[in-house]
Design brief:
The chain has helices at about 1-30, 45-65, 90, 95-110, 120-135, 140-145. With about 150 residues, the protein is mainly α. α2 (about 45-65) packs antiparallel against α5 and α4 packs antiparallel against α5. It is globular. The chain starts with a helix and ends with a helix.
Length: about 150
């Protein structure tokens, strides 16, 4: 009887250690791969997600410019013309399409810029974001200003 009790306690002890270790692994995994949580209680549109990715890429570009490193663009910025928007009527407007064209031109200019021009072209890129958001969706302007 004592032997069964000892085996049961030992087994529970081992299970608790294994479970504890696997929980710590999950926590570390979550820290290394942060999942961007939705800021919209109704979910995020494709365009909102894309614009957050564009912001992240712009932050990286800003750092690379400051460090004198070469710039690499990884996003398909053209998707901003076709991505589903939270408010589709705004993304279908002439204003949005005009601002999008200016932004995309800034992206093309940045890709082909000489080192001496990169800073100026990057600032134009950020201004194109601010100008569009000033007219169509002012919420993110405070965040976008941090890119300057």
């Amino acid at each position: 009887m004592r032997h069964k009790l000892f085996v049961t306690i030992y087994t529970l002890l081992i299970l608790s250690v294994v479970t504890s270790c696997s929980e710590k692994k999950k926590e570390k995994s979550a820290e290394n791969n942060p999942v961007q949580q939705s800021v919209n209680p109704n979910g995020d549109s494709e365009l909102a997600i894309l614009m957050r990715q564009m912001f992240d890429e712009a932050e990286t570009i800003k750092e690379k410019i400051a460090n004198g490193e070469p710039i690499e663009l990884s996003l398909d910025h053209e998707k901003m013309l076709t991505a589903h928007a939270t408010e589709p009527e705004k993304a279908a407007s002439a204003e949005y399409n005009t601002f999008a064209a200016l932004y995309l031109q800034s992206i093309k200019n940045l890709e082909s810029a000489k080192v001496s021009e990169v800073d100026s072209i990057y600032n134009n890129l950020v201004m194109s974001c601010l100008n569009c958001h000033k007219v169509l969706c002012p919420g993110p302007m405070v965040k976008i200003k941090k890119l300057q």
